[in-house]
Design goal:
alpha+beta, Glutathione S-transferase Yfyf (Class Pi), Chain A, domain 2, 51% helix, 8% strand, globular, binds glutathione
Length: 225
């Protein structure tokens, strides 16, 4: 016989490394909604052994009662729906999807660069030639929101705002001076991080100290996060 679901077993649990990485958007959405959650933070040393216990051999994993979710972007969409952060009506749902896909590419782009073994050799070129056109395209997409709200979709916060914020917060430690050239992106970033629940989380000890694990040439230390 299966155990009855109790309120406690429905409290979400997030399993990830003790870094911001792919789990940070999940944490921030839960924080924004004052949703209680627990975490299992795995150290990089214990991972090789634990990896075998995970169906896909990868994290994040999101659990909520009997629900067990893999795949970062499916988890983001689930939380968007669960917390009514997926826009209103069909045209806003699809704009959420489009913005999300745009940031999947942007996040992969910057993560590949931070993890590149030749990071030091490539950094000037990326800062000068790759980052500005990428930020230009993103800012154009932000201001193309037909409702001029400062959010990426519609007139209120959606899950893709958190994804966008997370990406911009990856750019910040690498090249704040480049980011500062993009006024609308900066205004958006400030608007998100000054929301009371998010501001409290960002200032708290709950927030992991680094963007990613220490193996990465950039983002694996507090100084580069
Ligand atoms: N497609 C998966 C990829 C997840 C993924 O690459 N996770 C990394 C951490 S960011 C991981 O588990 N790395 C350890 C490993 O692959 O052994 C998703 O989107 O969630």
């Amino acid at each position: 016989m299966t155990e009855p679901l109790t309120e406690e077993s429905l409290i979400p649990n997030v399993t990830y490394f003790d870094v911001r990485g792919r789990a940070e958007v999940i944490r921030i959405i839960l924080e924004e909604n004052s949703a209680p959650y627990t975490e299992r933070r795995i150290s990089i040393d214990e991972w090789p052994e634990l990896k075998l216990n995970f169906t896909f051999g990868q994290i994040p994993v999101y659990e909520e009662g009997e629900l067990l979710l893999n795949q970062t972007n499916a988890i983001y969409r689930y939380l968007g729906r669960k917390f009514d952060m997926y826009g209103d009506l069909l045209l806003e749902h699809v704009r959420c999807d489009m913005v999300q896909e745009t940031f999947v590419e942007a996040q992969n782009n910057i993560a590949d660069f931070y993890w590149n073994p030749e990071f030091e050799k490539l950094r000037d070129g990326y800062e000068k030639d790759e980052l500005p056109p990428l930020l230009t395209r993103l800012q154009d997409l932000l201001v193309a929101n037909p409702i001029d709200s400062g959010f990426w979709v519609g007139s209120r916060l959606s899950f893709v705002d958190i994804i966008a914020w997370h990406f911009l917060d990856h750019v910040r430690p690498f090249s704040l001076k480049t980011l500062q050239q993009f006024e609308e992106l900066c205004q958006f970033k400030e608007m998100i991080e000054s929301r009371p629940h998010i501001a409290a989380y960002l200032a708290s000890d709950r927030r992991p100290k680094t963007l990613t694990v220490s193996l990465s040439p950039f983002g694996g230390t507090e100084e580069t996060s």
